[in-house]
Design a protein that fits this description.
The protein has 372 residues and is of the alpha/beta class. The chain contains 13 helices and 15 strands. It has helices at residues 16-30, 76-86, 101-108, 129-141, 153-161, 205-217, 235-244, 256-264, 280-287, 300-307, 318-334, 336-354, 356-371; strands at residues 2-7, 34-40, 58-62, 64-65, 73-74, 91-96, 116-120, 147-150, 167-169, 191-196, 224-229, 248-252, 268-271, 292-295, 310-313. Helix 6 packs across helix 11 (318-334).
């Protein structure tokens, strides 16, 4: 089968969509499919990451146009190339929500004769008025698609409420051979709490900073050690906190392969995000057996409620996060055997529900159904 993917970011951006596309593209190519990936050379944040694609995948990073607001748009040259390649494959997969790309693709649709799958990997709701207006417009722009792929229940619910029926809910996946069970808790002298992701307000970095201050000043948890990985606009704030406390280590951006050893030395995964879809980092951490203390939001709740793999706290409930962290820390101290059994149970559930082997089969069936 010949499959074209279009994403209006560079793969070097290294976010969730980019990592998903690399994983899925490589695995589909290894199963004998012909994969073409068109991305734009635009990256909002420059990260020191590399992209490894399976031999035979055709990947083109193309020129782009950038308006004062919104995401990058393909240049006229890129649009012409997209239409030409789209009509040479069996099925086209396009990532949304990347305004105003949906408007552009709606205009191009009459020139594309192949079925189009729209992948929605970011939650289509916001509270800023300009984004509410765009969501209203999005309902009409998505009519150019043949089918939709979404990772979480909430997005499936939204699309069906909008009147779309051909919706495939297939979760993100994780490489269970690469991400293995965390080290035995008896091998560590500190309780390591891991945060990894973009260092941005949307990821709850301000919540992370507040609870670090409180734990160090008010709570008797001096053996709690914070490991913070990532990069973003709030790097300077995290660096300042790391300089202030001995139990906070800011590791900066760490390539995914190197992050594995950090997972396996950690004991708890912290996700104080304000918005997520189905974070790949959560699946990776839980494939290593880490319980999670996370915001009670869509996407995260799909994983944690399925595997009973952590506690969900209302956003901005700082003391709720702290009390949950304290409970896991006490279990690790007082009942290490029980803690380690919990880690093994979490990993088993992730293997059953989110291993790439099962996820790729479902994605492959979706692509075949739409192409056929």
């Amino acid at each position: 089968m010949n499959i074209l993917f279009f994403l209006p970011n560079s793969l070097l951006y290294g976010g969730g969509e980019e990592n998903w596309l690399i994983e899925v593209g490589n695995r589909l190519a290894q199963k004998g499919h012909n994969i073409i990936i068109i991305t734009l050379s635009y990256t909002p944040i420059v990260r020191a990451c590399s992209v490894k694609l399976t031999k035979g995948i055709r990947h083109e990073e193309c020129p782009y146009l950038k308006l004062p607001r919104g995401c990058a748009l393909p240049s006229l040259f890129t649009m012409a190339k997209m239409v030409k390649l789209a009509n040479e494959v069996d099925v086209v997969y396009i990532f949304a929500v990347h305004p105003p790309n949906e408007l552009l693709l709606r205009i191009l649709k009459p020139s594309i004769k192949r079925p189009i799958i729209i992948g929605i990997h970011s939650v289509p709701y916001r509270f800023v008025m300009t984004e509410r207006v765009y969501i209203t417009l999005l309902k009409h722009l998505l009519d150019f698609s043949t089918a939709f792929h979404v990772p979480i229940r909430y997005t499936e619910f939204i699309l069906k409420r909008w009147g779309y029926e051909n919706v495939y809910r297939i979760p993100n996946g994780v490489d269970i051979s690469e991400f293995r069970l965390c080290d035995d808790p008896a091998n560590s002298s500190t309780f390591n709490i891991l945060f990894t992701g973009r260092i941005e307000h949307s990821k709850g970095v301000d919540i992370l900073i507040k609870l670090i201050h409180i734990i160090n000043k008010e709570k008797n948890m001096r053996d709690a050690n914070f490991l913070i990985c990532g990069s973003g606009s709030l790097d300077h704030i995290v660096r300042r906190v790391a300089d202030q406390y001995d139990n906070v280590k800011f590791l900066g951006f760490i390539p995914r392969k190197e992050l594995i050893s950090v997972y396996r030395k950690s004991h708890l995964f912290l996700v104080p995000s304000r918005e997520e879809q189905m974070p790949l980092r959560l699946l990776e951490a839980q494939a290593c057996g880490l319980p999670a203390v996370a915001s009670k939001i869509f996407g995260i709740s799909d994983v944690i409620s399925t595997c009973k793999s952590g506690e969900m706290i209302a956003i901005n409930n700082i003391y709720g996060f702290i009390e949950s962290i304290k409970r896991y820390c006490e279990m690790w101290h007082q009942h290490p055997d029980r803690y380690y059994e919990m880690c093994k149970r979490i990993r088993s559930c992730i293997i059953k529900n989110y291993s790439w082997s099962s996820v790729i089969k479902r994605l492959e069936n979706m692509l075949k159904n739409i192409a056929g």
